[in-house]
Design a protein that fits this description.
Chain lengths: 1004, 92
């Protein structure tokens, strides 16, 4: 293995003292510290890096940074494997492992390239017209298509890395640390403003690192080092490297991704990546520009690359991207690239310029370097099998048609430059409207909506002097706007460089076709790519327009132009120009597609930060949580709460436990933790009036020491919530609401009070966390409670069903309510939450001689279901009180929230789904939860199962459901079907209340 | 987007819950409202592209309802005030 045959013997910003070993497609290579994976591969002569998305054509490195469309690799193995990583942005590290994607068995011999033979059947949008016949066969097609589409492979193991989020506030944010950005940073930093500078590169400098410019008398690299050193002395300045600002949001909030430890192992406590939320008073966008290519035949061969990328590999990485090169351009900047290549020992055969008379000074320099100059000519197509071998060039006449005999030039490197696109992405995300500048044939920022301004190449100014001047002015303007005295004068003594700097390309004409692509001979079937990553050709764009997709947004989605991981950085503007040409419009009128964040792909793990897994939602625990765990409870997530699902004993599963616990309540006594219920205290003389406005029933007559069940509606007449409200004192009420809806109901009650009826003399206080609560239920419950309750007479006469009172248990003040969710004789007891565990232990101890059993939510549901009490499954956001059989609760007069809507015909339709009870016909089979109800032999469903359980009273599975005209269907036989689990269970319909219909147990 | 809560200062909008159009007027006696009037109150909104007065609830902060003047196109916020009787008090 000849190491790094294409590495120049000297030069570059790499550290030759630190060689690094890496592996690509299983072969070992060497590079240097400072390399990217792309530069190291090029140094080792690796030309084929991947295969294209659709046609599996061989592809090589095309660009230098984030604009790279081709060189996507699978980086790393196992849980850390990163698909679709751009080789141009991967910092080389020792031991790096990478592989080509989208090819099998190897990138050099890919079976997938056979699709290229069928490419005529696979133009843009072909999948909208295929895979439809025969009907129903899509399932089969899908299995096959799933295996072959996509590029990289997502790892299937949990991500072992940590990701952080940080918030930062600053006066000025400068995005980009190229010449304009550093100048802006110096101007803003020197004013004393709090400054953040974010640059995507490993080190500041931007495109200066890829060139050979001088600033003043010294090389740009020295100027960068001085600027960085000065910025690091400023206490209010934060310099973020390896940090890409990927989104611009409202109110000058931006998001950035810092790649902390992608390129080395993370230190203890360090995240792999960090997302910054930056709130900036003023922003300077110095985001630079992306070179774009030209369109000609086979313009995707490995060996074709952007001219600035080629010179970047030469200058920054000391890599010769080829042995013999041709440069094809329509603007001045590629002339610099040609000279850079020549100075590095690449034999530049010719420079082909679409323009008939480029500036004479440039022509002279080219000639002096021994490069053949071919103005008014074009590369018609590139030649080669799996790699570039040469080009075919022809002169163009005044109509831009080839004339004279075409010429072949052998080369293994073709540098293309079709002009430059200012990176207006963040400006557009900030609601700026980019406008087309015909002088540079590109979109530049328009008027700003947010407090931001662009400088340098991001603004369409490409000369180094302009970049530095604009940067300084923008930085000073930003600092001034933020209230700091700033000067744009940076003291730069800028002498004209002996080297050519990035010059502004000037177009003679703005005909879309002639400036963007080489002419195509009729009958020439060679593919001319516009979007390399998604294999979109100019023929595809023409096809889309022919089929009626004329707006760029439609063309984008029909052809997938610009929808790859590069988001069209090199292809979008080219594509828009082709749309303009095809529709006969001006490109300025055609416009761009909408720019959206993120600017570069961002891992979902980074966006999630620390809020994954157990931290996805808060975990709320009741005061008695530890007691439940100690008693062997299996804790279940109900919403954000952790509640005991059951307390299985040795040899029991959860179903067994639920049966035992529910039976224990019916036979003796049980205890369940109900602390999760939402609770509110209402104070004030207008509390009863408020209750009557939010509940459907009467409240004014409620006496102190009594409670009532209440149903609350939404304004559209649908049941919102239910609960019990008690009158604790003269102007003091205590309301409970369901666990799941508590935050929503609390918010809505507050809205009704504060917004609709602020005149009410009322205070509502949420006390869900302040009270621990239990339900003590079963025939023995009174005897247990009497043992421990002081100061309150709960004998049957003194304390009937629907009474409440206060007393004390174990010295703690307690509120006791004779409420029964289970249907048995029962009491709900609340104490201040700090004493919840003491209450629990006290009742367990007192109840032990009566066989008290703690029960969980499964048993609790089994009890309430056989009593016909509704809960979350029935309160599904689609039922009215009458649907639930509670129509009789509605008081005759007086407005309440939702009353007016109850008059709607749709809410009174006799076919509405009504609450029923369900039992399996065979008395044994469980009814599948969530099953739909169908009548025999039809497949239209007429209802659904809302709750299921095992009934301790009947000793069999039962359920509740909602069925069309259910109340008139008692004794009917129907089917509960669940395609999800493939079950069909015959069921009988009856009333919802199975247990104690006369209420004898309840009123014991 | 930062919402200037009158009680808590400028806070990220993720701390708030949106509460809809603040210019709605519930009919004084809904029983007298026609079906059309009631339907309009329930469902129809002007949804202007421009200045909009709307309610937000500072759910992860002071838990108070506030009224915000926001431009629905530019998202510029021109001010926020408490609702209900609290509006009689000065914000800190």
């Amino acid at each position: 293995m000849t190491a790094q045959r294409f590495r120049a013997p000297s030069g570059g910003l790499i550290d030759r003292a630190r060689p690094l070993r890496f592996s690509f497609n299983g072969r070992a290579y060497t590079g240097f510290a400072g390399d990217t994976l792309a530069s190291a591969l090029l140094a080792n002569g690796v030309r084929r890096v991947g295969r294209s998305f659709k046609y599996h054509r061989p592809r090589g490195v095309f660009g230098l940074g984030a604009e790279e469309p081709n060189a996507l690799v699978q980086l790393g193995r196992g849980a850390r494997s990163d698909p679709n990583s751009k080789a141009t942005q991967i910092e080389l590290f020792d031991g790096l492992v990478a592989e080509s994607q989208n090819c099998w068995p190897t990138v050099d011999f890919d079976v997938g390239s056979l699709t290229g033979l069928f490419s005529r059947l696979m133009p843009a949008g072909f999948y909208y017209k295929t895979f439809m016949w025969p009907a129903g066969s899509w399932i089969a097609y899908e299995k096959f298509i799933r295996r072959i589409v996509g590029l990289g492979k997502s790892p299937l193991l949990p991500d072992p890395d940590r990701y952080e989020h940080r918030h930062a506030h600053c006066d000025v944010l400068v995005v980009g640390a190229g010449p304009a950005g550093l100048a802006a940073a110096l101007a803003a930093g020197r004013s004393g403003a709090r400054l953040i500078v974010a640059d995507e590169g490993v080190r500041p400098g931007g495109m200066l690192l890829a060139g050979r410019e001088h600033i003043g008398a010294r090389p740009a690299v020295d100027w960068i080092a001085e600027a960085e050193a000065e910025l690091r002395t400023m206490p209010e300045v934060k310099l973020l490297s390896r940090t890409t600002v990927f989104g611009y949001y409202d109110h000058n909030q931006l998001a950035a991704l810092e790649r902390v430890a992608d390129h080395r192992p993370a230190r203890p406590g360090e995240p792999r990546q960090r997302v910054w939320h930056i709130h900036a008073r003023e922003v300077v966008l110095a985001t630079g520009a992306h070179e774009r290519p030209l369109v000609f035949g086979n313009n995707d061969l490995p060996g074709v690359m952007l001219a600035s990328a080629a010179s970047g590999y030469v200058n920054r990485y000391a890599v010769r991207p080829g042995r013999g090169a041709v440069v094809f351009t329509n603007n001045d900047s590629a002339y610099t690239a040609a000279l850079d290549l020549a100075s590095c020992g690449v034999a530049v055969q010719a420079l082909v310029d679409l323009r008939a008379d480029p500036p004479a000074a440039l022509a002279e320099r080219i000639g002096a370097a021994g490069i053949e100059h071919l103005p008014g000519a074009a590369v018609l197509h590139a030649r080669g099998w799996r790699t570039l071998a040469g080009v075919v060039v022809a002169r163009l006449d005044a109509d831009s048609k080839p004339h004279g005999a075409p010429r072949r030039i052998a080369c293994d490197l073709l540098c293309v430059s079709g002009a430059w696109n200012p990176a207006v992405h963040l400006h557009a995300q900030a609601r700026g409207r980019p406008r087309f500048d015909p002088d540079i044939a590109a979109f530049v920022p328009g008027p700003s909506v947010q407090d931001e301004r662009s400088a340098g190449a991001a603004r369409g100014s490409f000369s180094l002097a302009d970049c530095l001047a604009e940067g300084g002015a923008a930085g000073a303007a930003a600092a001034s706007a933020a209230g700091f005295a700033a000067s744009a004068e940076l003291g730069l003594i800028f002498a004209p460089a002996s080297e050519m700097h990035l010059a502004m390309p000037r177009m003679a004409t703005m005909q879309a076709a002639s400036a963007w692509s080489a002419p195509q001979a009729p009958g020439d079937r060679r593919k001319r790519f516009v979007d390399l990553q998604n294999d979109v050709t100019d023929a595809d764009i023409a096809l889309a327009v022919r089929e009626g997709y004329r707006s760029v947004e439609h063309v984008k989605r029909y052809t997938t132009l610009g929808m790859g991981t590069d988001q069209g950085k090199t292809s979008n503007t080219l594509g828009f120009a082709h749309v303009a040409a095809a529709t006969g419009a001006e490109i300025a009128a055609v416009g761009t597609t909408t720019y959206r964040p993120p600017y570069v792909p961002v891992a979902l793990g980074a966006l999630a930060g620390m809020e994954g897994g157990r931290h996805f939602a808060p975990n709320r625990r009741t005061p008695m949580h530890d007691a439940h765990v100690a008693a062997g409870a299996v804790m279940a997530q109900t919403g954000v709460w952790l509640r005991p699902q059951g307390y299985p004993r040795a040899g029991e599963n959860l179903d067994d436990a639920a049966r035992r616990e529910a039976s224990a309540v019916r036979e003796r006594v049980g205890l369940v933790d109900i602390s999760t219920l939402g609770k509110l205290e209402l104070f004030g003389p207008d509390a009863p009036a408020f209750l009557e406005r939010v509940y459907i029933n009467r409240w004014r007559g409620l006496k102190v020491g009594r409670w009532r069940y209440g149903v609350m509606l939404r304004e559209d007449g649908i049941v919102f919530d239910d609960g019990t409200t008690s009158r604790i004192g003269e102007a003091h009420y205590f309301m409970t609401v369901t666990t799941g809806q508590a935050p929503l109901v609390t918010r809505r009650l507050d809205y009704w009070h504060k917004v609709l009826w602020p005149e009410l003399d009322l205070r509502i206080v949420s006390v869900t966390d302040q009270w621990a609560g239990v339900a003590l239920a079963g025939p023995q419950s009174r005897r247990v409670l009497t043992r421990v309750l002081d100061g309150l007479d709960i004998s049957p006469g003194a304390f009937p069903h629907m009474a409440m009172g206060t007393g004390s248990i174990a010295g703690i003040a307690a509120r006791v309510f004779r409420i029964s969710f289970s249907g048995d004789l029962a009491y709900e007891i609340y104490v201040p939450s700090g004493h919840g565990t003491l209450l629990w232990q006290t009742l367990i101890t007192a109840g032990s001689e009566f066989g008290i059993t703690p029960y969980g939510v499964d048993a609790m549901n089994a009890l309430r279901i056989e009593k016909g009490h509704v809960a979350g499954g029935e309160l599904n956001g689609r039922v009215t009180p009458d649907d639930l059989g509670l129509g009789g609760m509605i008081r005759p007069e007086g407005d309440f929230i939702g009353r007016r809507s109850l008059a709607r015909p749709g809410l009174n339709d006799p076919g509405r789904w009504q609450l029923v009870g369900l039992a399996p016909e065979d008395g044994r089979t469980s009814i599948p939860p969530g099953a739909k109800i169908v009548a025999d032999r039809t497949d239209r469903y007429i209802g659904e199962v809302t709750s299921t359980s095992w009934s301790p009273t009947l000793g069999m599975p039962i359920g509740l459901g909602l069925i069309s005209a259910g109340r008139s269907r008692h004794a009917e036989r129907l089917l509960a079907v669940s395609p999800l689990v493939g079950q069909k269970v015959p069921v009988i319909v009856r009333g919802p209340m199975v247990f104690d219909p006369e209420g004898k147990r309840l009123h014991a | 987007m930062l919402i200037p809560c009158p009680h808590c200062g400028a806070r990220p909008h993720a701390e708030f819950t949106y509460g809809g159009d603040a210019t709605l007027r519930r009919p004084a006696d809904p029983a007298l409202a026609s079906d059309d009037e009631w339907h309009e109150y329930l469902y129809l909104r002007t949804n202007p592209a421009g200045p909009h007065r709307e309610f937000w609830h500072h759910t992860l902060g002071c838990e108070q309802w506030i009224e915000v003047a926001r431009d629905t196109v530019s998202h510029r916020i021109d001010g926020a005030a408490p609702v209900g009787r609290a509006s009689e008090r000065r914000p800190r």
